[in-house]
Amino acid sequence: MRRHWLDVLILFVLASGACLYVSLQVPGVRSVAVHSYLLFLGALLMLVVVSGVTAAAPRAHRSDFAAALGERPEPAGRVSQLAKMEREVTLSIGNAYDLHTRLLPHLREIAAARLERRGQRPGPDTLGRWWELLAPDRPEPKERFAPGIPEHELRELVTDLEAI
Questions:
Q1: 114, 141 Cβ separation under 8 angstroms
Q2: Do residues 134 and 88 make contact, with C-beta atoms less than 8 angstroms apart?
Q3: Are 79 and 126 in contact, with CB atoms under 8 Å apart?
């Protein structure tokens, strides 16, 4: 309210000056000028009262419910297992050792689970051309830094595993 006192004082002085000027210059409309002046003073008084009451009243705090509604949840991050699998695929395309140690165990598990649903076991007759790659007794590559599986072959393998 303290910062409004100067504004209220300036408005009061201006309104009083305007009423006095109109009353002296145009005597025929003096009663209209006085009534307008009194109406303006009433509005100014209401402004002072409402502003004072608002300043004196305790500030309402938002309820916990309203605060919870206003909060924005953080966007969900990437699934850590998906990010891990993407890294393993990238590494497996890069070199043979990562293919053997990182990706092939997952692919063997997927193939075994899909075949088990059909009542079959992994073998050369069920996995076809992929048996040599997915055989559980497949030896480690002799050259660890040799190229891994080409991306198009990996896509074909995944497509064939999906078809099982």
A1: no
A2: no
A3: no
Q: Which helix (H) or strand (E) holds 96?
A: helix 96-98
DSSP code of residue 83? H
- Which ranges of the chain would DSSP assign to H, the alpha helix? 5-25, 30-56, 64-70, 80-94, 96-98, 104-117, 124-127, 131-134, 151-163
Both tokens of residue 21? 């000027």
CA trace torsion 142, 147, 153, 155 (10° rounding): 120
Among 93, 117, 111, 87, smallest CA distance to 162 is for 111
Rounded Cα gap, residues 59 and 148, in angstroms: 67
Q: How confident is the model at residue 136, as a pLDDT?
A: 87
What per-residue confidence (pLDDT) applies to 2?
A: 63
Give residue 1's pLDDT: 53
Q: For the chain, which ranges sit under pLDDT 50?
A: none
Residues in the chain: 164
| Phi, psi torsion values for 133, nearest 5 degrees | -80, -40
Q: DSSP state, 95?
A: -
Q: Which two tokens stand for residue 86?
A: 């993407």
Biggest CA pair distance of the chain = 115
